[in-house]
Structure formats: structure tokens, C-alpha cells
Amino acid sequence: MAGSYADGVGWVAQFPEVCMYAILWHALFWVCYFAAPVLFVSVASLNEKKGEHGYWAASMTSTIHAILIFFLAVVALYQDTSLVTSDDFFVSTPLSLLTCRIFTGYTLADLCVSLYFNARWGGWIPNVCHHVCTFIAWYGMGAGSYAQGCSLLLIMCEITTPFVNQRWFFDKSGMKGGKVFVINGVLMLVFWFIFRIVGYFSVGFRIYAQRQGLITIPTVEMILFLFCYVAGAGLMVLWFQKIVAGALKTVRGAKARTA
């Protein structure tokens, strides 16, 4: 029997759980903030006016989150493949909903940190827009218990985050240009293409296949869901272009040094 929007817990009832996860992720940010100078000597040379110490801590937190949330998404999909094979828009499992809400809580926590540092972090406006769209979309999916297969597939895109963060760590540690830096860059490019280009846009086909359920949710929520997906797609392409441009710059630099 197909589910319905009424089976969800609702936006209000879900709020305490999401807030709890947001608080936990924010607490981890502060643990990373105070632990970073002890664990990494490079932190001492960071530019505090640009909020780089905070960015380092946020990057540590997002790496931990990415690994955990990717694992949960994979396990949830492994436990119930109907999440991605069924055309029922409302198929969900306890683990898929837990993963969705943990992810939503992290997004809220990281959004608050991003807003605090704002212009001190480069590219903060696209990042905030991405976080706002992500929070709205996943909060709705968790509250209405819908599109859980799409939620998990998109959450798997987080596997690219450790490579993006590691590139910044290498840069600030004076390791930019080395072989390990190049290898990390190649992996970042490949994983971004697989998960955030091919994978992200493939989810559009699942949304279309589940369109009969999609049109049963409140109109405003449906519009927000579709808008956030399209806006996210635009940001994925924008950031992929920057990654490709960076890769080409590295290749040209390597050729110039060997010429």
C-alpha cells in the first residue's frame, strides 16, 4: 500500500530532533576549533582576520560528517533497495529518516557558522544559498517522509567533501603542488563528476518517476522541493567548472615547469 504525506511527522514535530542534531554538530565544531591548534602546527599560521581558524574547524567537522552520513546513506540503501527502485514517493525506513534528519541538523549548524563568518570566507554567498536550499529541501523530506531514495542518493554526494577540504588543508600547510596534492585534486575532480554531476542529475529521473506522489504534497512545499533541486543543480555545475579550471591551471603549471 502506497504511503501519503499524512504519514509524516510534520514540520513542527520534527523540529526538536533536528535541533538536537544541530546542537551536537555545533558542539563538534567547537571541539575541532580548540583541538586543531594542538593537532596541526599549520593552524598557528592561519589568517585570523579571514576567519581561517574557524574555516579549518568547520572543514574538520564537515569531513567527519561527510564520512558518517555517506556510510549511513549506503547502509540505508543496502537495507531496503525499494527506496530507489519503487515509484512510490513516500517509501521510507527508520534509518533513511534518521539519516535525513542528522543531515538536516548538520546543515543548520554549518549554516549558522557560515552566517557568523560571512564575508570573511571566500565564496560565502553561494555556500549560504546552497545551505539554505539544502535545509529547506531536507527538512521537508524528513517532515513529510517523502523522496527518501532521492534524499539518500543526494546525501551520498557528500563523499566529495573530504577531498575538497583536504585540498584546502594542503594549501594552508604549504603542501600545494606536491604529488599528494595532485592525487587529491584528481580524486576530487573524478568523485565530483561521478556523484555531484552524474549522480545528482540522475536523481531528476527518480523525481520524474515518482511525480504522481510529488503532486500530492502541499503546493508550496512541492515548489520549494523542485526549486531547491534545480538551484542545487546550478551550484553543482558552477563549482564543477571551478574545479576543472583549477585542474587545468595545475596541469599548465606542471607543463611550464618541465618545459
Counted up, domains total 1
Main sheet specs: none
Question: Distance N terminus to C terminus?
Answer: 67 Å
Q: Structural class of the secondary structure composition?
A: mainly alpha
Descriptive report:
It is built from 10 helices and no strands. It has 259 residues and is an all-alpha fold. It has one domain (5-253). α7 runs antiparallel to α8. It is globular. The protein starts with 10 loop residues before the first helix and ends with a helix. The model has no long low-confidence stretch (mean pLDDT 94).
Core attributes:
259 residues, mainly alpha
Describe the secondary-structure layout.
Blueprint: H1 11-39, H2 52-79, H3 82-85, H4 94-117, H5 124-144, H6 148-155, H7 161-172, H8 179-209, H9 211-214, H10 219-258
Compact description:
The protein is mostly helical and 259 residues long.
